[in-house]
Amino acid sequence: MTHDLRVQGPVVLEDWVKENEKSFAPPFCNRVMHKEDLVIMFVSGPNMRTDFHLDESPEFFWQMKGHMELPIIERGQRKLVKINEGEVFLLPPRIPHAPQRPCPESLGLVVERQRIEGRDYDGLRWYTNFDKCDKILWERYFYCGNLERDVIPIVKEYQNSQEFATNTPSDRSVPSSTPFPQDTTTAVPRCIISTISHGFPQKAFIPGHSILTSG
């Protein structure tokens, strides 16, 4: 059965979530609402995968219910971004990230750019130690037009690899060439690091910027 992934009009989100609750089961806990120039999806928990995702576009996170954590690799170092309920966060492109959603009842909005087959690629990466992230264990790139169809084969390939069995990198761990480079230079500006690293307080922002909502 195929679904028309274009929003035809206003949606009552609570009703939509209930109608699609079976989609919010592990391992992806994910349901796409709209897919055209932008991919609009909602993600629940629990979801504690150990792979890091790489893509060429920014990702927008709005944590609507519960909290989530977003380990990222920034300038070669593991950093943890905590996004609490009601906060938003914009992740720059080409930065490895591993969304962690431990709460079963959590719900977050994620917005990404649509992928064009033959042009856009995603990467999945595992490290020998998820908490340290100092050695890459295994990494592959692929076109991702559908999570279940395109991600599951990559995960199975990793789980069947010698690197997974031994937790030891090899000369096959990382492709000799990749479709895009990882961003190893972008850093959160020090003047706003406390705001960015702990998400964005939407309720606190709107009263002070009412001019943006007045017209």
UniProtKB/TrEMBL annotation:
Residues 164-183 are annotated as: Disordered. It catalyses: 3-hydroxyanthranilate + O2 = (2Z,4Z)-2-amino-3-carboxymuconate 6-semialdehyde. Pfam families: 3-HAO. One of its GO terms (cellular component) is cytoplasm. The keyword Oxidoreductase applies. One of its GO terms (molecular function) is ferrous iron binding. It is found in: Cytoplasm. Pathway: Cofactor biosynthesis; NAD(+) biosynthesis; quinolinate from L-kynurenine: step 3/3. GO terms for biological process: 'de novo' NAD+ biosynthetic process from L-tryptophan; anthranilate metabolic process; L-tryptophan catabolic process; quinolinate biosynthetic process. It comes from the Eukaryota. CDD domains: cupin_HAO (cd06123). Its EC number is 1.13.11.6. Its cofactor is Fe(2+). Its main location: cytoplasm. Keywords: Cytoplasm, Dioxygenase, Iron, Metal-binding, Oxidoreductase, Pyridine nucleotide biosynthesis. Catalyzes the oxidative ring opening of 3-hydroxyanthranilate to 2-amino-3-carboxymuconate semialdehyde, which spontaneously cyclizes to quinolinate. Belongs to the 3-HAO family. This is 3-hydroxyanthranilate 3,4-dioxygenase. It comes from Perkinsus olseni (Perkinsus atlanticus).
